[in-house]
């Protein structure tokens, strides 16, 4: 049985890790742990999560009433409490702004490609919860629908949120989420974000089922030909529409013909 003080020490330790990892800037981010059915420990607002001490943490109930602590609780408490309410099995929630994941959230790109076995088995797909003003009901409602079938979400134009069966679990999911976003970004620069095939993804999902990991996984690329076609398509063609290409060809042809006419 973990004591309340041990939970507080855990929160401070994970706070230091998210700060040292560069997952948050200044006083950003917030963490929470469920310590009983209707009691939670949450981080304070206006404090760097890398330098918290146990007495700064607050004990709150499921309605957000402060039961213990003299600091002001995180302004995102409502979002944390909603996740717990939605799924009683969830024991901890992590919210941070890791750079690569946040860039995907800003670009409106969910992490739903089967690019690595780990992201299929362990992380699953990470959808985008529609933008809501931080600390309001909007953001909680946007997250709500994803809690049951996912292990985390990207918060549109904001950051990322993960939940798990312990604080360490939720933190590792966040590390995995940021790592997946980073690798995905690097592969995209090489025009090589090739996905695993559906057959290979099915093999991974059977491993995932055996391991007892729930949640939606990416579906993978449809066929091997599809993968190769994607690999061989030049980047410029992928980023331009057929209409754009027609216009460019027309303009270049016109310029060449004009240049030839001048020579003649
Ligand atoms: Zn935030």
Protein described:
It comes from Neobacillus pocheonensis. Keywords: Lyase, Metal-binding. Pfam families: Aldolase_II. This is Class II aldolase/adducin family protein. The protein is α+β, with helices and mostly antiparallel strands and 264 residues long. It folds into two domains: 4-210, Class II aldolase/adducin N-terminal domain (L-fuculose-1-phosphate Aldolase), CATH 3.40.225; 234-263. It contains ten helices and eight strands. It has an eight-stranded mixed sheet with strand order 4-3-2-1-5-8-7-6, with helices on both faces. The longest helix is centred in the last third of the chain and has 23 residues, at 167-189.
What's the short version?
This protein has helices at residues 4-20, 77-86, 99-107, 117-123, 137-144, 167-189, 198-210, 224-232, 235-239, 242-263, and strands spanning 30-36, 39-42, 58-61, 66-68, 92-96, 128-129, 152-155, 159-164. The protein is α+β, with helices and mostly antiparallel strands and 264 residues long.
